[in-house]
């Protein structure tokens, strides 16, 4: 049981450590990251509530006959995983990141947002992983822990990277006063657009992942491997670029 717990928790902590290592200019305070991580864990509770409520609303909007049809079932699943699951989980992770950091004095570089986003995501993923591995249909399950360590955990991390990147840009738009965004109204417009991107882009990436992985068809299985490989490569390169061109918010 101890070995299984270690295998369940090592992947999120390892990915968080790797992202933390990319923060070259000024490391974030461990206490702040611990707060974000714990909030990320706790955010699994409202996420579950939102998902249940979203499923009810979606079933009220779509006719039951449509949902029961072959094509309608796929459309329902797509909407459910992208809007309901992806939207709920990325929203609560965003709040777990934003609440303790937006006005925090340590949020002084754009890449800090990436660290915060991944910390919230890994907090969420850590508790979610424990629940799936130990309480899920096959739990306690070594195979579930192994599969999720290569798929779900990296997906949460990738979503956290992009969420944090746009979060950092949103903070930059609010603080910077160079010639491009000297007009306050334009500055706030860019900030709000980036804050929306914090949720919408991870939501879509996350939702498509869940939709493909739960489809069950052979084509979906092939798409899954292509999707996760391409996304991993793109996210890794983006992470390196974000870290290399990190910019002060002062």
Explain this structure to me?
This protein is mostly helical. The protein has 10 helices and no strands. Helix 2 (30-42) packs across helix 6 and helix 6 runs antiparallel to helix 8. The radius of gyration is 19 Å and the shape is globular. The model has no long low-confidence stretch (mean pLDDT 90).
Give me a quick take on this structure.
With 250 residues, the protein is mostly helical. The protein is built from 10 helices and no strands.
Let me know the largest β-sheet.
Answer: none
Helical stretch tally: 10
What average pLDDT do the residues reach? 90
Secondary-structure-derived class:
mainly alpha
- Share of helix, binned: over 70%
The separation of the N and C termini measures 48 Å
Number of strands: 0
Strand content bin = under 5%
Shape: globular
Stretches where pLDDT falls below 50 for ≥5 residues?
A: none
Q: Could you tell me the radius of gyration in angstroms?
A: 19 Å
Order of helices and strands: HHHHHHHHHH
Which terms summarize this structure?
0% strand; 250 residues; 82% helix; mainly alpha
What's the SSE blueprint?
Elements lengths: L1 H20 L8 H13 L1 H18 L2 H5 L1 H32 L10 H24 L6 H9 L1 H24 L8 H32 L2 H27 L6
């Amino acid at each position: 049981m101890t070995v299984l717990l270690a295998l369940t928790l090592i992947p999120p902590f390892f990915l968080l450590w790797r992202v933390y290592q990319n923060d070259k200019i000024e490391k974030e305070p461990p206490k702040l990251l611990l707060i974000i991580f714990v909030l990320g864990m706790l955010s699994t509770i409202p996420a579950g509530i939102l998902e249940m409520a979203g499923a009810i609303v979606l079933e009220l909007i779509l006719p039951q006959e449509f949902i029961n049809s072959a094509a309608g079932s796929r459309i329902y699943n797509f909407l459910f995983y992208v809007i309901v699951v992806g939207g709920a989980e990325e929203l609560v992770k965003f709040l777990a990141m934003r609440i303790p950091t937006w006005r925090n004095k340590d949020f002084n570089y754009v890449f800090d947002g990436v660290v915060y986003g991944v910390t919230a995501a890994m907090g969420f993923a850590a508790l979610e992983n424990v629940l799936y591995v130990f309480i899920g249909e096959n739990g306690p399950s070594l195979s579930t822990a192994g599969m999720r360590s290569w798929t779900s955990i990296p997906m949460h991390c990738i979503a956290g990277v992009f969420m944090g990147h746009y979060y950092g840009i949103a903070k930059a738009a609010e603080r910077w006063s160079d010639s491009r965004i000297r007009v306050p109204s334009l500055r706030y417009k860019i900030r709000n657009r980036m804050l929306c991107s914090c949720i919408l882009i991870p939501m879509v990436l996350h939702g498509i992942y869940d939709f493909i992985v739960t489809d069950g068809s052979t084509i979906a299985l092939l798409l899954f491997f292509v999707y996760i490989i391409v996304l991993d490569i793109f996210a890794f390169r983006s992470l390196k670029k974000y870290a290399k061109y990190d910019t002060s918010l002062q």
